[in-house]
Every structure is written in structure tokens, then in C-alpha cells.
Design a protein that fits this description.
about 30% helix, 9-stranded mixed β-sheet, 4-stranded parallel β-sheet, 15 strands, binds magnesium ion, globular, Rossmann fold, single chain, alpha/beta, binds adenosine monophosphate, about 20% strand, 2 domains, DHBP synthase
């Protein structure tokens, strides 16, 4: 598909997003590969298109603070950050609001979400016209450079994804990500908004967190959704286990969920987080997980399972 750019193109792109399609669009940081963040299948096609081998939580892009407040709960300090730096290259990690409607593929099963209002007229018009929050990681195949022009996006995906052309991006680097813990701001990722600018605006020190480290506040996990149960991968269930099956499953009397009886990896990915939560909710001490082919979305599924099964400190 060709590069598109006018008002009508935004309406067409919004319709495509609402029906579960992907559209790449410009922001002030880099071009994003956008999908309706409330639609699991749409978000999964981001992974399929990028060839991304792991399920990271994705930043949800909003058009204004109202839209953001429907998705997440803002503490007073978080709201001041949004009021000061939005629209702009600052993503704020916040606790999800009940009834938020975001897909658990977009949140990677966490109870928090990173929100951002991009400072770009096309991005804002697109989100508004779609009427949904948009997941939008950088619009490049996994492992390649983030694109800052529409041409780079078109080339990267061999013309398979429609691109709204907004010319070259201003910043060219990703957004800064922060979390808020009481009166403390913690930087989770350095990006286009300098830490010093936040510190000067608020007259406080911004703490640093290693990517993947835990944030001190209870329930605020950076990126590891881990069930309470222990997990055994590539396993056959034993009595007392809960069983996460895939495809043709052996007979098992205990609590069982099948990610995809038809052995479809897309269906399995869609069910992954909710079924893990359900099995964990049974109170089982061990979740046995059937082997899952390590190809296509199976790679991201296995990565997530391995991290969920990893020993915890
Ligand atoms: P992007 O690929 O630009 O959408 O950025 C996604 C990154 O944002 C993830 O890899 C995480 O580092 C971070 N992120 C998104 N959501 C969260 C969250 N709820 N908690 C912590 N970090 C998050
Ligand atoms: Mg990227």
C-alpha cells in the first residue's frame, strides 16, 4: 500500500484500526506501528508483523488526559507530570483502572500500563478518529533501527503496512518512561525527555531504575508478570498440578486450560495471559505447561513462559 497523508487518509486509517488492522503513523519520537489496544488480535498482529520474539507491555497512546483517566488511575503527582509534559515524549506507568478495556496482550498481563499523549497532530487526529487507545511500538521489524521517516517504514515492512506520512520525526528517539511511587518519580527508560527537565520542572530528583528491576511499591512490577504458582515447562501434568495444555492434550483430571486445541499459535497467544491468571487463581502450587512450538508467535509465548517460570528473588 502507498503512503497516505490527508484528512481522508486519517479517516480511512481510523476505520482500519477500528476493524483490527495495523497502521503506521508518525509521532514526535519515531514512527509507531499502531493497533487498537483494546483488541487482542490487533495487538498480536503487531508482534507478527514486527517478528518480535517477546511480549513486552506496550505503551498505549491517548489523545488527551480524559482518555488516559479512563484507562488508569492518576495520583496527584502523576497528573501533574501529564499536565506539564503532555503532549510530549513522556510515558507514565500507572495502575490500571477497573473496566479499562485494554487487551492483556497489550499490558502483557500486568496491572499497570504505560500511557503517553504524543506531540504530533497526525497521531492525535488518528487516535481521536479511532476513538480507542493505540498500542504503538516502533514501526520496524524486530532488531532493526527505529524509523524516523515514512519511507523507512514502508521499506522495513515491504509495503505491507499502510503509513500515514508526517515527514521526518522531530526527536528520533523513543519516549522517556517513568513510574510514580508516592512523591517519587522513577525513570524506567531514558528517552527524548531529559531527566534534568523533569527535575527542574518539579524541583526534585528523579530516581533511576534498571530495566527489568522491581519498583518498590507493592504491585508495581516493571515487566515480569509471574504467577504465584511455580511452573514446569515442556511438561506432562502430575496429580495436584494445574495444566496449561496446547493442541492434542493428554487426559488429565485436574484444572486444565487449553491455549489452543487446534494448535494455533495466534489463538494460544491470545489466551496466554488470561489462562495463566485463571490457573493461578485455582490456588494450584504448580502449573505444568505443555510443549509449545518455538516458531512464529510461539517464540514470544515461550519467552513469556520462561520468564514467568524463572526463579524469583
Ligand atoms: P515501546 O516498545 O516503545 O512500546 O515500549 C515498550 C516498553 O515500555 C516496554 O518494553 C517496557 O520497558 C515499557 N513499559 C510499557 N508498559 C509498562 C509497564 N506497565 N510497566 C513498566 N514498563 C512498561
Ligand atoms: Mg523499538
Amino acid at each position: 500500500m502507498s503512503t497516505i497523508s490527508d484528512e481522508e487518509a486519517i479517516a480511512t486509517a481510523a476505520a482500519r484500526l477500528r476493524s483490527g488492522g495495523l497502521v503506521a503513523f508518525p509521532t514526535e519520537t519515531v514512527y509507531g506501528l499502531g493497533a487498537d489496544a483494546t483488541n487482542a488480535d490487533a495487538v498480536l498482529s503487531i508482534y507478527e508483523t514486527k517478528g518480535r520474539p517477546r511480549f513486552n507491555p506496550l505503551i498505549a497512546h491517548v489523545a488527551d488526559l480524559d482518555m488516559a483517566e479512563k484507562l488508569a488511575v492518576f495520583s496527584p503527582l502523576a497528573r501533574r507530570l501529564a499536565e506539564k509534559f503532555w503532549p510530549g515524549p513522556l510515558s507514565i506507568v500507572l495502575p490500571l483502572r477497573p473496566g479499562h478495556g485494554l487487551s492483556d496482550v497489550a499490558t502483557a498481563g500486568l496491572d499497570t500500563v504505560a500511557l503517553r499523549m504524543p506531540d504530533h497532530l497526525i497521531a492525535l487526529a488518528l487516535i481521536r478518529a479511532t476513538g480507542r487507545p493505540l498500542s504503538a511500538p516502533s514501526a520496524n521489524p524486530s532488531g532493526k533501527l527505529s524509523p524516523t521517516t515514512a519511507e523507512q517504514v514502508t521499506r522495513g515492512f515491504a509495503g505491507k503496512v499502510p503509513v500515514l506520512d508526517g515527514g521526518p520525526c522531530q526527536a528520533g528517539v523513543e519516549s522517556t518512561i517513568v513510574a510514580v511511587d508516592g512523591e517519587t518519580i522513577i525513570q524506567l527508560r531514558a528517552g527524548a525527555l531529559a531527566r534534568r527537565d523533569i527535575e527542574q520542572a518539579f524541583g526534585l530528583k528523579v530516581a533511576l531504575a534498571e530495566q527489568g528491576a522491581k519498583i518498590s511499591a507493592p504491585g508495581m512490577l516493571l515487566s515480569h508478570y509471574a504467577p504465584n504458582a511455580h511452573m514446569r515447562l515442556n511438561a506432562t501434568p502430575q496429580p495436584g498440578d494445574a495444566f496449561l495444555a496446547f493442541g492434542d492434550a493428554p487426559d488429565f483430571a485436574g484444572e486444565t486450560r487449553n491455549l489452543s486445541p487446534a494448535a494455533d499459535l495466534h489463538e494460544a497467544a491470545r489466551n496466554l495471559f488470561s489462562m495463566l491468571h485463571e490457573l493461578d487463581g485455582t490456588g494450584a502450587k504448580m502449573i505444568a505447561v505443555a510443549p509449545i512450538p518455538d516458531e512464529g508467535l510461539g517464540e514470544a509465548i515461550n519467552d513469556r513462559l520462561q520468564r514467568a517460570a524463572a526463579p524469583r528473588g
